[in-house]
Amino acid sequence: MITWRKQGAAVVGAFSLADGRESKIVLVAGRDNSRGAMVVSATSGGETVEPVPLSECLETLEPGSVIEVLCMQERVFGDSGLEAPDLT
Amino acid sequence: MTAPHNIQSLLDGIVTLPSVPSTLARITSLVQEPDVSLSQVGRVIATDPAIALKTLRLVNSAFYGVRQKVTSVEHAVTLLGIKVIQNLVLTATVFDTFHKGADQLFRHSVACGIAMRAVVESSKAELGVKPDDAFVFGLLHDVGKIILEEFLPEEYSNAVQLSCTREVPSWQVEREVIGVDHAELGARLAENWKLPELLVGAITGHHDLDQCADDDARASAASLSVANFLCSACGLGGMARPILWVDENVWSITQTSSAQVLPLVDRFVQELPTVEELIKVAA
After folding, report:
1. Residue A25 Cα, gap to closest chain B Cα (Å)
2. DSSP symbol at A11
3. Which letter does DSSP use for residue A29 in this model?
4. How far apart are CA B144 and CA A8, in angstroms?
């Protein structure tokens, strides 16, 4: 389960990748923007790597995490009328 | 702490499950006859004006995508066939029996029906559920919650609150507080209504695959679990703060990869307007 918080205009989620590494996802725009969801993770040595668009690293996430990310993106930035989440 | 009830003590003393509505019972029995005709099915539906009207409104909704305006039950039966009409009558009956306003739980149930069809149609796995049947799986999966809410309002409300404060899935707290969870109760209703075994199995195991009796039930329960998760992630979970929890085996059983999730979410989001349309049909 991803823990979400608001950070300025962005929404940031903390979660674990499929291999167990801690990671963050930063949502800044809707699903139609290829850089609207960026994954920020660390190498096994602990160095933070460059943010990668979600669409380019899908297989590093569990399917459930991808669903959570896409749905949160739709709720915050989409125009489908889904209720916006109550984030602090 | 010992849980106060088991399913039998609950049904013996506190909960009265709604009996199967007569039109649904007649249709269920009729479609099992080998030489049933379309006109016989149409006539039975037409004798129940409320169900006939809801069935027609469903047929003409965007969800069913029938291109021409259908104005009579006979026309609907001829156009869609007996199996689809049977599902429509079940849907109309559930709308008629359980809808009490546009509450969160009902919206969740309808959304889950739409999500279930998307899951079934986009999965590469053999899930055992046909796309035409998928909607009623989602629509009925939480019917046990409606029954708990009606007969054990205080206990059920406590369970929901505890689920939120402890951040534990509601069904686990229901077992602790009430002794029975909504899945078990809903499955019992589906059994009493003589609904298909696969649907009963899916309702039974949609939160806990270990409750499924066989692989077919596990596959249908797993797909229902994905649909349920999708709705909750979209804020359509039926509770103020739904707990996003899913058995990790559902992804392998439904053969859902991370890449396959993209078109699944796209499709579900595209179909979201039909949630409100179907709720209006139910009213």
Report:
1. 15
2. E
3. S
4. 41
The answer to the question of residue A9 being in a domain is yes
Quote the domain boundaries for residue A73: 3-77
B161: Cβ–Cβ under 8 A, 6 or more apart, which residues?
A: none
DSSP designation for B47: T
DSSP for B118-186, please give it: HHHHH--S--S--HHHHHHHHHHTTHHHHHHHHH-HHHHHHHHHHHHHHT--HHHHHHHHTSS-HHHHH
Confidence at B186, pLDDT banded by 50, 70, 90:
very high
B111, closest residue in chain A (CA to CA):
A82
Round to whole Å and give the CA distance between B146 and B144. 5
pLDDT tens for each residue of B53-70: 999 999 999 888 888 899
Residues 21-60 of chain A with CB under 8 A from chain B are 31, 55, 58-59
Answer whether residue A68 is part of any domain. yes
Give domain status of residue A84, yes or no: no
